[in-house]
Amino acid sequence: MLYKINLENILFLDIETVPEHEQFDILTEEKQQLWEQKSRYQRKDEFTAEEFYERAGIWAEFGKIVCISVGYFVEKGAERLFRVTSFYGDEPSLLKEFKQLLQEHFNQAYHLLCGHNAKEFDFPYIARRMLIHGIKLPYKLDLFGKKPWEIPHLDTMELWKFGDYKHFTSLKLMANVLGIPSPKDDMDGSMVREVFYKEKDIDRIVTYCQLDVVTTAQVFLRLRGEALLSEEQVKTV
């Protein structure tokens, strides 16, 4: 049951991704062919492989992570705080920094990772990009040989499904129906590529990513039937 989990044992996270290269023609000829094959059924006949490449960020084989934001609860007496921090920039470096955080502060069996749609996207994406860069997987992302109940992952979208395997609900919609105030962000996920490559504004992406982490934590609190965080309780570190 959710209310039995110690909130301080959960690391909430979100990632932002973009195509690995800004333009399709930067890819090698072999990689272009592989992209054409990989994207064939998603783009159908509506787009060429080159036109569809702007969406390549959703596949770990053709994209890269530009930001990982994390948040965690800290209880100080009767006061509850939620601290948020981010790793961004060079992908191998941010992945190593994130791994270090897991190994030093969230490496116990009772520690959990939590995200929205994270079991389908964030967790496997991070693991695949780590392996691509030759980074050994941390314990929390190495699922080989683990039984389902041994996997230390929580997913707010999965919790909302209540066994309905075909039900997809966006974080924004969940926040709305659960009465969570919408964060005052100036972008959405479809804009990350342009903001990264065209505007070169990583700070804007980091802010957006951190807002999603806070919203995920708020959703989790609502699923537990607890009071939401106030703006004063959220601290960026």
Any overview of this molecule?
It is globular, with a radius of gyration of 18 Å. Strands 5-4-1-2-3-6 form a 6-stranded mixed beta sheet. The longest helix is centred in the last third of the chain and has 22 residues, at 202-223. The mean pLDDT is 94. The chain has helices at residues 29-38, 40-43, 49-52, 91-105, 122-132, 156-161, 171-177, 192-199, 202-223; strands spanning 10-19, 63-76, 79-88, 112-115, 153-155, 234-236. It contains 9 helices and 6 strands; from the N terminus they run E-H-H-H-E-E-H-E-H-E-H-H-H-H-E. By secondary structure, the protein is of the alpha/beta class.
Cα-to-Cα separation, first versus last residue = 30 Å
Name the average pLDDT. Answer: 94
Low-confidence stretches: none
Q: Helical region count? A: 9
Helix content: 25-40%
Major sheet: size, sense and barrel closure?
A: 6 strands, mixed
Spatial shape? globular
Major sheet strand order? 5-4-1-2-3-6
Strand content: 15-25%
Structural class assignment = alpha/beta
Topology as a string of helices (H) and strands (E): EHHHEEHEHEHHHHE
Radius of gyration: 18 Å
Please give the number of β-strands: 6
Features:
single chain, 237 residues, alpha/beta, six-stranded mixed beta sheet, 6 strands, 37% helix, 19% strand
Gist of the model:
The protein has helices at 29-38, 40-43, 49-52, 91-105, 122-132, 156-161, 171-177, 192-199, 202-223, and strands at 10-19, 63-76, 79-88, 112-115, 153-155, 234-236. By secondary structure, the chain is of the alpha/beta class. A 6-stranded mixed β-sheet has the order 5-4-1-2-3-6.
